[in-house]
Every structure is written in structure tokens, then in C-alpha cells.
């Protein structure tokens, strides 16, 4: 009996073979997340110059207070906040509309599948699609110009506060629908029936019952959309070729600039600033998501 218990205890201490399945995941996270983050953190506090790497210094961090960096950060925050709020509101209404359709209906399956594709359709491919449609030589721009309805020449598409906002909404709205739809589906019909039985109106049900339950999920999805827009790079890089109005573009400019040399670690300091902002937002998102899960599990 004692030998059997001892063998069972030793077997319980042995690593399970199931852990081998997550080894590739940990390797992937280490190579593509942990190591780059460590390089950014260390590099942000190392001085650089034409002579190469220097010692520890706060010069790169102090460079974050320069007008060009603060302007890029401010523009990124505005762009992310506006597209997150607009995408969250529009996507929430679409999610509710989809939730009212038949669960096994063609419309619902088609909409969710389409949103799943559009939410991942970004980068240079998305920028090219808008350039071919609304750009200076886009077919829709030429069509509107020929009819006299548009004389801007499609230049608005290349501005961060106009064109980029429209392009970002292209993938923000579908992402909101995918993320928020499970929360809307978590509303139980019994809650509405109980409100109607007690004499409550539709407005009262949404204000007193549905809205408080959906609010944590809505805020969590809003924060996720903000992070998604704040960290986007390829789409903005393909559309905005002049200057670096956004923080990701400013980071890219310090790494591949042929005019200003020795600014690589300043770019790492800006990247560290982005990591801090994203980490703070995602921490808040995780806390709100846990609260929303508890509500919907009841």
C-alpha cells in the first residue's frame, strides 16, 4: 500500500506529456514577444551616437518630450480613440441586429463569416484597396470628378484625421461585432419577459437591465479596439508617405531613416512608450472582461 502511494506521488510529480504540446507556443512567445520586448526595454536606456552604442542614459527617454514625438503620440491617441468609439457604437448596433436573426440562418452565418474576414483584412492590402478606389487615381475619384461631385482629387485619403479614420473603421467595426456578439447573445429572454411582466417598457428594460449587463463587455471591447488601432502600422505606412504623424510611423522613421542616423534607440524609447500604453489598456480590459464574464455566467 505504501509503495503504491509512493509510486503514485512520484508519478504525479512527473511532467505530463500534455505539456509538450504547448512547448512550441512558449518558444513562439519567447522569440517573437519576450525577446523583442526585452530588446526594446534595454535599448531605450542605452545612449547611441555616430560612434556606436554607449552607456546607460536617459537621453532617449527625455527625447520623448520633443514636439515631434508628443505630436505623433497625440495624433495616435486621437485616431485610436475616435475609431474605437465609432467602431464600438456602430458594431454594437450591428451585433444586436445580427443577434435577432435566426441562429442557423444564412444571413447570420454570412454576416459573422464576412466580419471575421474583414476584421483580419488590414495592412498594405487594405491600403491598396482604398487607394484603388478613393485615391488620387482611384476609379471612384475619377468617376466623381467627371460628374463634378468631387474636386478634392482624393487627397483627403492621405490625411491621418480623415482618410486613416475611414480606413481603420473598415476593420474596427467587424472586429467589434465579433467581440461583442457573444455578450449580446448572453442576454436571456427571461429577463425581458420579467421586465414586461412587471410593467416595464422597452426603454426601461434596456436602461435598467440590458445596459448595465452589457456595459462591461462594451467597455472591454472598446479598449480592445483602441489597442488594435493604436498598434496598427502597415496600413498607415502605406497611405501616409509624408512625415510621421503617428507614433508607429515615427518609430519606423527612426529605424530606417537615411537622413538622421543614430536615432535607433530613440525609436526603442518610443516603442517602450507604446508598450506601456498598450499594457495599461489591456490590463484594464482584462479586469473588465473578468467582471463581464461573471455577469453573463449568472
Report on this model:
It is a single chain. With 298 residues, this protein is mainly alpha-helical. Helices cover 72% and strands 3% of the residues. It has 13 helices and two strands, in the order ααββααααααααααα. Strands 1-2 form a two-stranded antiparallel sheet. The protein is globular and about 70 Å long. The two termini are 45 Å apart. The model has no long low-confidence stretch (mean pLDDT 83).
Give the SSE layout.
Blueprint: H1 2-13, H2 23-43, E1 46-49, E2 52-56, H3 59-62, H4 67-99, H5 106-119, H6 123-134, H7 139-147, H8 163-185, H9 189-197, H10 202-230, H11 234-239, H12 247-256, H13 264-297
Antiparallel strand pairs: 1-2
Radius of gyration: 25 Å
Q: How are helices and strands ordered from N to C?
A: HHEEHHHHHHHHHHH
What is the count of helical runs? 13
| Structural class by SSE content | mainly alpha
Order of the strands making up the biggest sheet: 1-2
Amino acid at each position: 500500500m505504501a509503495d503504491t502511494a509512493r509510486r503514485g506521488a512520484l508519478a504525479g510529480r512527473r511532467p505530463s506529456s500534455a505539456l509538450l504540446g504547448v512547448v512550441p507556443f512558449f518558444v513562439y512567445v519567447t522569440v517573437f514577444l519576450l525577446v523583442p520586448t526585452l530588446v526594446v526595454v534595454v535599448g531605450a536606456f542605452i545612449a547611441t551616437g555616430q560612434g556606436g552604442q554607449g552607456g546607460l542614459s536617459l537621453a532617449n527617454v527625455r527625447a520623448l518630450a520633443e514636439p515631434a514625438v508628443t505630436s505623433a503620440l497625440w495624433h495616435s491617441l486621437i485616431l485610436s480613440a475616435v475609431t474605437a468609439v465609432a467602431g464600438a457604437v456602430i458594431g454594437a448596433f450591428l451585433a444586436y441586429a445580427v443577434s435577432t436573426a435566426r441562429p442557423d440562418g444564412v444571413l447570420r452565418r454570412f454576416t459573422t463569416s464576412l466580419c471575421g474576414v474583414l476584421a483580419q483584412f488590414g495592412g498594405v492590402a487594405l491600403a491598396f484597396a482604398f487607394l484603388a478606389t478613393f485615391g488620387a487615381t482611384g476609379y471612384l475619384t475619377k468617376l466623381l470628378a467627371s460628374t463634378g461631385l468631387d474636386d478634392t482629387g482624393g487627397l483627403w485619403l492621405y490625411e491621418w484625421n480623415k482618410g486613416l479614420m475611414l480606413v481603420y473603421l473598415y476593420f474596427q467595426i467587424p472586429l467589434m461585432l465579433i467581440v461583442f456578439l457573444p455578450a449580446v447573445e448572453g442576454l436571456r429572454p427571461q429577463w425581458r419577459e420579467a421586465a414586461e411582466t412587471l410593467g416595464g417598457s422597452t426603454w426601461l428594460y434596456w436602461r435598467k437591465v440590458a445596459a448595465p449587463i452589457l456595459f462591461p463587455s462594451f467597455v472591454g471591447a472598446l479598449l480592445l479596439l483602441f489597442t488594435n488601432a493604436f498598434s496598427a502600422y502597415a496600413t498607415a505606412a502605406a497611405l501616409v508617405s509624408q512625415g510621421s504623424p503617428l507614433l508607429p510611423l515615427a518609430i519606423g522613421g527612426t529605424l530606417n531613416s537615411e537622413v538622421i542616423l543614430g536615432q535607433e534607440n530613440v525609436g526603442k524609447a518610443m516603442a517602450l512608450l507604446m508598450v506601456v500604453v498598450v499594457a495599461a489598456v489591456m490590463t484594464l480590459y482584462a479586469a473588465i472582461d473578468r467582471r463581464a464574464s461573471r455577469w453573463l455566467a449568472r
